[in-house]
Design a protein that fits this description.
With 314 residues, the chain is an alpha+beta fold. It has helices at residues 13-20, 26-34, 110-117, 144-155, 238-245, 259-267, 299-306, and strands at 2-3, 39-40, 43-44, 56-58, 82-85, 89-94, 125-126, 135-141, 160-168, 177-179, 182-186, 196-200, 212-221, 224-231, 275-283, 290-294. It has three domains: 2-58, Structural Genomics Hypothetical 15.5 Kd Protein In mrcA-pckA Intergenic Region, Chain A (Roll); 82-155, Pseudouridine synthase; 160-306, 2-Layer Sandwich (Pseudouridine synthase), CATH 3.30.2350.10. The N and C termini lie far apart (69 Å).
């Protein structure tokens, strides 16, 4: 039995369990919820049930992973460039190559490093996620009320999320909306066995999720195009798959991109995927004031972009 404390008041049941049962596979957590083995105040509860301080949660026996080796390297404390901070939330500029959290072969990420760097913080929780190789604006909640209100905004598509991406080729001026469903699959066999892949699917696919990206040309270069992409849905790898599906993959994308071109670009200095979470707009969870945050392009991306000659006039 676990009694919900004030620090978990208002959290979704699935998120509470994933945090409480650290190391237990996510699929197993959702399975014990669906089967009714998890009880809240003696009753069945859905994954999206909001737990309240004082609730009693009954958990079935689960096999926890072995305790980590005490000799293993500890999580290093690290601060990240701050874009906004008050007593309710923190917005940082996440660098590329750093995961937002540990798991799937990654020992630690942004959130674990922030917690270690700020031991006095009562709570630090990710509001949303970015791919490991994507840089830019990342929100962290410092209070449970802020977390639930901000996550509600993301779920209800009330936030404005705009990314900068450079794609290969000349993006068609009339291609401004991509409304294509996406589905996740697991790769079987080969080096990528068990790896998650996302692909465009048909509207009648029961596993497909409607996904909408709005595309605006920001700059045309010789052989590539800088795009501003605003996503109306937040699907896994949405921008990467949507742009690649139109024949214009993101430069440096090692999963959905042009691999031969990527090798050439590496020799020219582009060592990462050119995708950056540039702008985020939302309503402050406590004051109700509109907030607009912007993270400048990292130096390595800005330098690459500056080196690209302008496209020849048509």
């Amino acid at each position: 039995m676990v009694t919900i404390g004030e620090e978990s008041d208002g959290q979704r049941l699935d998120n509470f369990l994933l945090r409480t049962l650290k190391g237990v596979p996510k699929t197993h957590v959702y399975r014990i919820i669906r089967s009714g083995e998890v009880r809240v105040n003696k009753g069945r509860a859905a994954a999206d049930t909001r737990v309240v301080a004082g609730d009693v949660v009954r958990l079935p026996p689960v096999r926890l992973p072995e305790r980590p080796d005490p000799a293993a390297a500890p999580v290093p404390g690290r601060e990240f460039p701050v874009l906004f901070e008050d007593e309710h939330l923190l917005a940082v500029d996440k660098p590329a190559g750093t995961a937002v959290h540990g798991g799937s072969g990654v020992s630690f990420g942004v959130i674990e490093q922030l917690r270690r760097a700020r031991p006095q913080a009562r709570m630090l929780e990710l509001v949303h996620r970015l791919d490991r190789e994507t840089s830019g604006v990342l929100l962290v909640a410092k209070k449970r009320s802020a977390l639930t209100r901000l996550q509600d905004q993301f779920r209800e598509r009330e936030t404005g999320k705009t990314y900068l991406a450079v794609v290969s080729g000349a993006w068609p001026a009339n291609k401004k909306v991509i409304d294509l469903p996406l589905r996740k699959d697991l790769v079987s066999g080969g080096e990528a066995d068990g790896e998650r892949r996302v692909r465009v699917t048909t509207p009648d696919d029961p596993e497909g999720q409607r996904s909408i990206s709005l595309v605006k040309v920001a700059r045309r270069c010789a052989g590539c195009t800088l795009l501003e992409v605003t996503i109306k849905t937040g699907r896994t790898h949405q921008i990467r798959v949507h742009l690649a599906s139109q024949g214009h993959p993101i430069l440096g994308d090692d999963k959905y991109g042009d691999f031969a071109l990527n090798r050439t670009l590496q020799r020219q200095g582009l060592k990462r995927m050119f995708l950056h979470a540039w702008r985020l707009q939302f309503v402050h969870p406590a004051s109700g004031e509109p907030i607009a945050l912007q993270a400048p392009l990292p130096p390595e991306l800005q330098s690459f972009l500056d080196a690209q000659p302008a496209a020849a006039p048509v």
